[in-house]
Design a protein that fits this description.
It is a single chain. The protein is α+β, with helices and mostly antiparallel strands. The chain is built from six helices and five strands, in the order H-E-H-E-H-E-H-E-E-H-H. It has two domains: about 120 residues, Alpha-Beta Plaits (2-Layer Sandwich); about 45 residues. The protein starts with a helix and ends with a helix.
Length: about 180
């Protein structure tokens, strides 16, 4: 379908806005999908805090250049792009789930903080635990040395208290 120059300019401006607003962009190459399947993908992506759009590759390449994103050459074939407005791993998990057992779709790669990442990196990002779990693990790692230090410092006092208690119990027994 041919687009007029005016319509292409509007599309280019929209692409640039999506690129500026998103924290991460992931790409899927698809074959033989109908609009019902694409709409189902869009609904899953919305649940993950993003948007998914079928894009024109040449216009997206121009938009990437205009925004200053380094390109990796992944814009070939039919492309569905997901724009993460929330947490990037959530969208990566959604894309990995969508393409997991599909023969008609595969992850091409994407952009994280406007730098290109490979399909393997997108899958690795999808395998990360959720942010609250990561924070809890980090807090545990930070707290472990402090807790060990407190136990080490308290140990001599605990031993002295145990000796005093044992001595007081021993002294109380003959008087009874």
């Amino acid at each position: 379908m041919a687009f007029s120059k005016k319509h292409k300019d509007k599309m280019l401006a929209q692409y640039e806005q999506w690129l500026r607003d998103s924290k991460a962009i992931f790409m899927i190459e698809y074959k033989k999908m109908n609009m019902k399947e694409i709409d189902a993908i869009r609904a899953k992506v919305r649940d993950a805090g993003g948007q998914a759009h079928v894009v024109k590759n040449t216009l997206m390449e121009r938009a990437l250049d205009n925004v200053g994103v380094k390109r990796s050459g992944d814009l070939v074939g039919t492309t569905l792009m997901g724009f993460a407005y929330g947490e990037a791993p959530d969208l990566a998990k959604t894309f990995a789930e969508i393409t997991k057992n599909s023969e008609t779709m595969m992850i091409k790669g994407g952009f994280l903080d406007m730098n290109p990442i490979s399909a393997a990196n997108v899958k690795a990002l999808a395998d990360l635990p959720p942010l609250p779990v990561m924070r809890a693990r980090l807090l545990g790692v930070i707290q472990a040395p402090a807790g060990q230090l407190v136990r080490t410092l308290a140990e001599p006092a605990r031993r002295v208290a145990a000796v005093v208690k044992a001595y007081s119990e021993q002294g109380a027994a003959p008087a009874a």
